[in-house]
Each structure stands twice: as structure tokens, then as C-alpha cells.
UniProtKB/TrEMBL annotation:
Its EC number is 3.5.2.7. It is an enzyme of class 3 (hydrolase). Residues 26-46 form the Aminodeoxyfutalosine deaminase/Imidazolonepropionase-like composite domain. Binds 1 zinc or iron ion per subunit. Pathway: Amino-acid degradation; L-histidine degradation into L-glutamate; N-formimidoyl-L-glutamate from L-histidine: step 3/3. It comes from Muricoccus vinaceus. This is Imidazolonepropionase. It is found in: Cytoplasm. 4-imidazolone-5-propanoate binds at R76, Y139, H172, Q239, S316. N-formimidoyl-L-glutamate binds at Y139, N313, G315. Belongs to the metallo-dependent hydrolases superfamily. HutI family. Keywords: Cytoplasm, Histidine metabolism, Hydrolase, Iron, Metal-binding, Zinc. Its cofactor is Zn(2+); Fe(3+).
Length: 398
């Protein structure tokens, strides 16, 4: 008799192990928070554990939102109205608005306030089947405020049944007190890595490499510091212009390079060679009306793994739905359903360096997302509405 804690039956599975990995009449068994067995129900070994009948629902690995800025103060609805009247995202940023206006609101907020503001945004993601979420700092831009953001991110993981992965994004913008001294601020941000990592607040180091943010040289110096500390890196790369971000990320063996609307073919090829995941953020392309799209054909040709995320943030992508991002990735970028779903499961886990999730396979964490849909394509097809009927985190109903 097999030793399981719990078994889900009467389900249709997307294991995501090879492509969608569809199992029409499937079963999943959990033991000690991990998947102990998965496959066709007819082959399920004899066991004495309680069975949950899923009534034909689809089960996928718990969804992974691998790029968010969930923790921040205030919002930028007023800036949105200015953009509707003709101002561009970049113009507003250059005037000291944009990211810096969120920095003002975030610096003014205490840790509890940041947590309280972030929770409803997190809950919206969880309601759709997310079980792992990445959260960045980057609206503090001074040690204590960056620390508060990262502590609030960790607190989110305590308050809800979800794995939170933190990225230190101190190099997101130059704060007002360093105006005209960008290099000094880049060095100051690099110096924050050690103390924040000492507190266990940093799982990865991220940066915004862009003509309105940091140069390649400043980003490289920051990445050297991360490397010395043994931390993986990720990069906001080539979002508004081609600054060689994709190639830079590849040079440092980054877990991911994100956005990539303006990335060059060489940059994408370098990423593929380095095993760097391409994180696609269609909400940002849409919301700032960026005309250029990431070169999906080149990504496919290079054999890049593509992930899809919300980029949930107040300025460029106030997106509280990962399922809507699936629709946008398919509609705007022409991803296939299989590519989009891999993008919020297996490839999203890879973008976070997490080898224990994103796939339904023995040994993986028993993180499941259950959906009342007729086919996997429906997860990408509907715009709005929520077909998620259950979440399991480490083997337990969540
Ligand atoms: O991922 N590109 C830089 N950072 C965010 C936007 C942040 C903001 O506008 O507040 C992004 O798009
Ligand atoms: Fe971002």
C-alpha cells in the first residue's frame, strides 16, 4: 500500500512536464507537502489516504507570478490621467514623477501600512491560483525604506499561504537627494546588498538598466557585488530602448531578463546560451502603450524559455490578474496557449531559480491550482472572471 497523505482524483491535469502534459483522467497524491505520485487514475497505486474528487476540474501546478512590485505606497491614477491627456511615461519620469512619486509615498509609509496596502493586491493574485510570488523593493531608494519594503514582502508570506521570493531593486531610480550624482547612488545601492542580505531579506538582486535609470557599467558593478555575495541576479532590460541589457544579464548568468521589448537578436541569443529566462510583461507594454513588442520569433528561434508575469506596479502595469496577462501574452505577443501556460508555471519557476515547483511531478512541492474550465485554452481566452476553484499549498487547502 502506498503511503500518501491525500489524493486528488477526478481531475484533468496539465502537468507542464512536457508541453502541457495533459492527463485526461488524472490523480495527484501528496505526502509531507510534496507530490508523491501523479498520473492516470487507472494507474494510481492502492493507498489508504483520503481522496478528494475534483469533479472534472483542471489541475495545474500552482501558478508563479515571477515579477511584481506588489509593495508600494499610494498609486499613480493622477499620472495615468496625465498620460491620457498626452504625456508619456518617460516624460513624466524625467520630470521627477513616475517612480519617484511612488518613492515619496512609500518613504512616508510604515511597514504595517505597506503590508496592509499590499495584501488586497496579493489576495487578488492568490484568488486566481498563484502559490508563489516574487516581490521587489525599489521604491525606498534609501536603506531603511528599502528594508521596510523587503520586510513587508516577507510579512506577506507569513500572512498568507504563498511563497514569497524577494528581489532587491535598490537600483530602480536615482532618488532626489542624489540628483546629479547617479554614480554615487548606484554605489550606495550596491552597498545595501550586504546588510539587507545579512537580515535574510534578499533572494535575488535586480536593477533597471535604461537611459532613464542606470547604465550598463553601473549595473555590472552592482551585479559584481551580488555575485560576491552569492546572490542570483535579474534585470529590467531593454524595456524602453536597447541598452544592451539582455547581453549584460546573460554575461552575469542572470536568472531572468525582463521586458525585452527592444532587446537585440544578439542579446536574446546570449540569454539563450546562458540559460537566462525571458520574462514577458504584456501588462506594461499595454499600459504604457509601448509600440514595440518583444521579438517572440527570435526568442523561439533562440530556444529561450519565456515566462509571463504581471509586473504588478503602480506606474507601468497596475495589473492584479495573472490570468489576464495570459490573455494579453497570447493576444498582444501571439504566444501559444502552451507557451503562455508554461510562462506562469515551469518557466516562471525557472525565472526565480526554484527547481522544486512549476511542474506536477514526484518530489515537487504539492502546490496546485484548480480551475473549472473546459480546456486549458480557456485559461488564456477569458478576459476577466475567475475560474479558479481551489489552491493547494504544500499539500494543504489554502
Ligand atoms: O517594471 N521598469 C521599471 N520598473 C517598473 C515600473 C515601475 C514604475 O513605473 O513604478 C516596471 O515597468
Ligand atoms: Fe518591473
Amino acid at each position: 500500500m502506498a503511503e500518501f497523505d491525500r489524493v486528488w482524483v477526478g481531475a484533468r491535469l496539465c502537468t507542464m512536464a512536457e508541453g502541457l502534459g495533459v492527463v485526461p483522467d488524472g490523480a495527484v497524491a501528496a505526502k509531507d507537502g510534496r507530490i508523491a505520485w501523479v498520473g492516470p487514475r487507472a494507474a494510481l497505486p492502492a493507498h489508504g489516504a483520503p481522496e478528494v474528487d475534483c469533479g472534472g476540474a483542471w489541475i495545474l501546478p500552482g501558478l508563479v507570478d515571477c515579477h511584481t512590485h506588489l509593495v508600494f505606497g499610494g498609486n499613480r491614477a493622477a499620472e495615468f490621467e496625465r498620460r491620457l491627456a498626452g504625456a508619456t511615461y518617460e516624460e513624466i519620469a524625467r520630470e521627477g514623477g513616475g517612480i519617484l512619486s511612488t518613492v515619496r509615498a512609500t518613504r512616508a509609509a510604515g511597514e504595517d501600512e505597506l503590508l496592509a496596502a499590499a495584501l488586497p493586491r496579493l489576495d487578488a493574485l492568490l484568488a486566481e491560483g498563484v502559490t508563489t510570488v516574487e516581490v521587489k523593493s525599489g521604491y525606498g531608494l534609501e536603506f531603511e525604506a528599502e528594508r521596510r519594503m523587503l520586510r513587508a514582502a516577507r510579512a506577506l508570506g507569513e500572512a498568507r499561504a504563498v511563497s514569497v521570493c524577494t528581489s532587491f531593486l535598490g537600483a530602480h531610480a536615482v532618488p532626489p537627494e542624489y540628483r546629479g550624482r547617479q554614480g554615487d547612488y548606484a554605489a550606495a545601492a550596491a552597498a545595501m546588498i550586504g546588510p539587507l542580505a545579512d537580515e535574510g531579506l534578499v533572494d535575488a538582486v535586480d536593477a533597471f538598466c535604461e537611459r532613464i535609470a542606470f547604465t550598463s557599467a553601473e549595473t555590472a558593478a552592482l551585479f559584481e557585488r551580488a555575485r560576491a555575495r552569492g546572490l542570483p541576479v535579474k534585470l529590467h532590460a531593454d524595456q524602453l530602448s536597447d541598452g544592451g541589457g539582455a547581453a549584460l544579464a546573460a554575461r552575469f548568468g542572470a536568472l531572468s531578463a525582463d521586458h525585452l521589448e527592444h532587446a537585440s537578436g544578439e542579446g536574446l541569443a546570449a540569454m539563450a546560451a546562458a540559460g537566462t529566462v525571458a520574462v514577458l510583461l504584456p501588462g506594461a507594454t499595454y499600459f504604457i502603450r509601448e509600440e514595440r513588442q518583444p521579438d517572440i520569433a527570435a526568442m523561439r528561434a533562440a530556444g529561450l524559455r519565456m515566462a509571463v508575469a504581471t509586473d504588478m506596479n503602480p506606474g507601468s502595469s497596475p495589473a492584479r490578474s495573472l490570468l489576464l496577462m495570459l490573455n494579453m501574452a497570447c493576444t498582444l505577443y501571439r504566444l501559444t496557449v502552451e507557451e503562455a501556460l508554461l510562462g506562469v508555471t515551469r518557466h516562471a519557476a525557472a525565472a526565480l531559480g526554484m527547481a522544486d515547483r512549476g511542474v506536477l511531478a514526484p518530489g515537487m512541492r504539492a502546490d496546485l491550482a484548480m480551475f473549472r474550465v473546459g480546456s486549458p485554452a480557456e485559461l488564456c481566452y477569458w478576459m476577466g472572471g475567475n475560474p479558479c476553484i481551489g489552491r493547494v499549498v504544500a499539500g494543504r487547502d489554502a
